[in-house]
Amino acid sequence: MSNDPFFTPFNDLELMPVEEKLEIKRKEKKLSIGIPKETCLDEMRTCVTPDAVQVLTDAGHQIIIERGAGSGSFFTDQQYADAGAQLTDSASKAFSQDLILKINPPTVEEIQWMKPNAYLISALQINLRDKEYFLTLAKKKITAIAFEFITDEYQQLPLVRLIGEIAGTASILYASELLAQSNGNMLGGITGVRPTKVVIIGAGIVGEFAAKAALGLGADVKVFDNSLSKLRRLHTSIGARIPTSIIEPKELQKNLRRADVLIGCMHKQSNIPIVSEDMVMKMKNGSIIIDVGIDYGKVVETSEITTFKAPYFVKHGVVHSGLPNLTSRVPRLTSKAISNFFLTYLLNYDEEGGFENMLMNRDEVKHSLYMYRGRHTKKILCNRFDLPYCDINLLMI
After folding, report:
1. Which of 5, 44, 264, 389 has its CA 20 to 30 A from that of 333?
2. Could you tell me which residue ranges the Alanine dehydrogenase/pyridine nucleotide transhydrogenase NAD(H)-binding domain spans (predicted)?
């Protein structure tokens, strides 16, 4: 050992300060985004407006949109072209991009047009899917996110809430139209005239905004739900002590006899309707039933799914409407709301340096997936359709 009191095992060069090396995010290439035309019956909405296309193309992304994709929402092909989108007459070309944005899930035939390892963001509509759908996606090694599973940093469902807000308000406005047609009444309250009575079953987001719309028109509103916490939250969010009740058959039937409008918007755990046919028979002639969540299960026993060509039917003297996509009655508004949501989502793609970085760095994005490169990552789907489950946290190691 050296006798030098300042001995060190490092040489002068190794002791010189150097710049700190920091990890940088690997930048992924810009996306090519396909917007196919919706082929589902009565679907008028679209995922991206021309204004959003302008922002995305300015950021360097390529937008391939099928001609007529925005016509149901009153957006023209020329508006999309002026915003920088590339128009195509081929649905297969729109489906063959890096990322597919759709309102309704693609059909099994449309999945065949998707290229391997592509990304898909759409609704899932689990009650209308079968095992073949997921196996077909898996063969293409698709990474897929469903509207129903998109969460934010607070573990809320922002897109579900957004569409629910519109559906709740739209249900009251549509009920008002039907009420005027069926018996000449107006939904609301006028000086010297008894206010219209509205019964709402379900105190979730749809029920909350239906109640706000009905109260705003001056109606007499009562809300039923089996969750005391939801009813308590409703009082807080509305800022008024509207009458509420647990779903007790005698109390419900008493209110339905006097009701002018019934809005059914409760997501049930069972397939048993809450309002029986006998209760409907005791309702007033010309009263209105809007079963908002009919595609998730009937709230009213006599409800049936209806279409825009035949939006309602009359049974026991009561007008029934069961439009599964009620927000398509206001397609431009709904499309703008959905587009604004996805615009922020896709701009985060740039900030994070790509989709894989988003998955690594943001748990809310990671847990919105139901499929990652062909692997099934949602346990509820795997249990329901007998699919092999893979934990997304293990796949991302």
Report:
1. 264
2. 176-322
CA 389, CA 160: separation in Å to the nearest integer?
25
- Domain identity same for 130 and 209: no
350 and 285: one domain? no
Number of Cβ atoms within 10 Å of the Cβ of 383: 10
H-helix or E-strand spanning residue 315: strand 313-315
Question: Could you tell me the CATH number of the domain that includes residue 256?
Answer: 3.40.50.720
Taking only the tens place, the pLDDT of each residue in 271-320 is: 789 999 999 999 999 999 999 988 778 999 999 999 999 999 999 999 99
Domains in the chain, number: 2
Q: Which domain holds residue 122?
A: 32-149+331-394
Q: What percent of the chain has pLDDT over 70?
A: 91
- C-alpha 224: how far from chain center: 24
In a domain, 123, yes or no: yes
Q: Can you tell me the distance from the alpha carbon of 163 to that of 271, in angstroms, rounded to the nearest whole number? A: 23
pTM: predicted TM-score of the whole model, two decimal places: 0.86
H or E, element range at 121: strand 119-122
Residue corresponding to tokens 């409008």: 261
Tokens read off for 60: 């360097």
Shared domain for 62 and 127, answered yes or no, is yes
Amino acid code (one letter) for 103: I
Are 300 and 355 found together in one domain?
no
What are phi and psi for residue 275, nearest 5 degrees?
Answer: -100, 115
Q: Are strands 220-224 and 119-122 parallel, antiparallel or unpaired?
A: unpaired
> Which tokens belong to 330?
């206001």
Residue 322 burial class via C-beta count within 10 angstroms: exposed 0-12, middle 13-18, buried 19 and up: buried
3-state secondary structure 186-226: CCCCCCCCCCCEEEEECCCHHHHHHHHHHHHHCCEEEEECC
Residue-wise DSSP of 87-112: EES-HHHHHTSSEEE-SSPPPHHHHT
- Specify whether 350 is located in the same domain as 290: no
